[in-house]
Structure formats: structure tokens, C-alpha cells
Amino acid sequence: MQTIGRIFGILALIGMLIGLIPFLGWLNWLNIPLAIIGLLLSILGKSNGGIIICVVAIIFGLLRLIFGGGII
To answer: Which among 1, 6, 28, 35 is placed 20 to 30 Å from 47, CA to CA?
Structure first.
């Protein structure tokens, strides 16, 4: 569970970074659920690294959606 949670976290972090590019902010709508799944798996596997990565991806993805108006 730890490894799967970290993999989901890394994928969510990469998706969040791509979502920071202008006109690709909509990608965070797909990225945030992936990060939440990774967060749940990391909590079950007790992986602190995976938890931190997923929380960072969720927070920055939500901030990007808020500042971009939810679409842009």
C-alpha cells in the first residue's frame, strides 16, 4: 500500500505541475481525485512521504483552480 500510495502521489504531483501551465488548469479536475485516492492509500499504508506528496498536490491543485476560475 505504501508503494502504491507514493506512485499515485508522484503521478498526482506531475499532473499538478502540468496543470500549472496556462490553459491546462482543467487538468486539475482529474488530478485532485487521483491525489485523494493516493492520500487514502498512503494513510492505509502509513506512508508519511506519500501523504505529504498527495496533500501538496491537492492543495496546489485547488489553489490553481480557485485562482483560474475553475477552468483556465
So the answer is: 28
